[in-house]
Amino acid sequence: EVQLVQSGPEVKKPGESLKISCKGSGYDFTKHWIGWVRQTPGKGLEWMGIIYPGDSDTTYSPSFEGQVIISVDKSINTAYLQWRSLKASDSAMYYCVRRGVEVTPTMREFYNWFDPWGQGTLVTVSS
Amino acid sequence: EIVLTQFPGTLSLSPGERATLSCRASQSVNSISIVWYQQKPGQSPRVLIYGASRRATGIPERFTGSGSGTDFTLTITNLEPEDFAVYYCQHYGTPLPYTFGQGTRLEIK
After folding, report:
1. Which residues in chain A have their CB less than 8 angstroms from residue B59's CB?
2. Measuring CA to CA, how many Å separate B3 from each of A46, A71, B75?
3. pLDDT digits (tens, 9 = 90+) for B68-77
4. How wide is the angle at C-alpha B96 spanned by C-alphas A89 and B22, nearest 5°?
């Protein structure tokens, strides 16, 4: 069974650093992109960025570029989302997701989706 | 950035009825890039439909996706009690970033 298991909830103060994790199992971790999605009541679901564990190629959403760091340790099948200095506005549920992909019938394009999703890591930033 | 607007915000129906959920893109998109997810309370989202109309593995036939250009629809026929949840559409394609709609809450009437 393909699974993504995330680290547990975190309570932090503004200005503190944080690194949360996402461990993949049940598939070749190096061959599937892993992304991060933020969910808040106010803004809903927001894609933050995506990394290819095979070579650590990373793309960030412009909204999150420079705000977070996405990394991976393929030796232990784990992806990370990191903050150097948290703000109260970083309080949210964070999900890691695996990119699903299928070639279209024309063989020229790809269908993409996120599946599975990790169970989520709740991050609370409060003084 | 592709902005996705979902409507209605909330849909109140009874089991056995048909639900029609809409997702409108701010500009024409390739239909292969439209994905639908379901999220139940306290759970992570799960994929239902990708490529606008292709059912993901294990998804019942009562879930159907359709649409092209800027207008996409998720139809759920013969609603089951477990279908009452929040549904999101997503644009997973170019241009970046990948974006989500704000969701439609399907509630029991």
Report:
1. none
2. 12, 28, 21
3. 999 999 999 9
4. 85
